[in-house]
Amino acid sequence: MIPRHVVFVLLGMKITPLRLAVLAFAVISSLFIGSNQASAQTLRIQIGTPPPPLVVEHPWAAPYPGAVWIAGHHEWINGHWVWVAGYYTYPPRHGGHWVRAHYRDGYYYPGHWAY
């Protein structure tokens, strides 16, 4: 559905190819912007073997304001567990917190941002 403010803009202007392209981009982009409900969905991957023990890491001082520490973790890559060292990053949206990856009952649940 096209937002009301976009319809009003369309009614008052000539539609040029550039304006049409910008409008198409805006509408298509809005399809990929998730809501809070969409971010609550959980991905799980069936894997038979649990990951190796965690490597103990100690986060250093945050390099910039708002930085979030993503702790080191194992990821399932090409059929085996690979250690990914911890790092700092920004949340993709304001108010997010990192949910750590975990393994339970034969399934691997990758880490993700939650809101």
Walkthrough of the structure:
- With 115 residues, the protein is α+β, with helices and mostly antiparallel strands.
- It has two domains: 4-33, no CATH class; 39-114, no CATH class.
- It contains three helices and nine strands, in the order αααβββββββββ.
- The protein has helices at 4-11, 17-32, 36-39, and strands at 45-46, 68-70, 73-77, 80-84, 87-89, 97-99, 102-104, 107-109, 112-114.
- A hairpin with a 2-residue loop joins β7 (102-104) and β8 (107-109).
- It is extended, with a radius of gyration of 21 Å.
- The model is unreliable at 5-10 and 33-40 (pLDDT under 50).
Please render the helix and strand layout as text.
Layout: H1 4-11, H2 17-32, H3 36-39, E1 45-46, E2 68-70, E3 73-77, E4 80-84, E5 87-89, E6 97-99, E7 102-104, E8 107-109, E9 112-114
Task: Report strand %.
Answer: 25-35%
Largest sheet: 3 strands, antiparallel
Shape: extended
What Rg do the Cα atoms give?
21 Å
Report the mean per-residue pLDDT as an integer.
77
Low-confidence stretches: 5-10, 33-40
Given the helix and strand composition, which structural class is it?
Answer: alpha+beta
Proportion in helices: 10-25%
Total DSSP helices: 3
**Number of beta-strand segments:** 9
Amino-to-carboxy terminus distance = 25 Å
The helix-strand sequence is HHHEEEEEEEEE
Domains, number: 2
Strand order of the largest sheet: 1-8-7
Oligomeric state, counting identical vs distinct chains: single chain
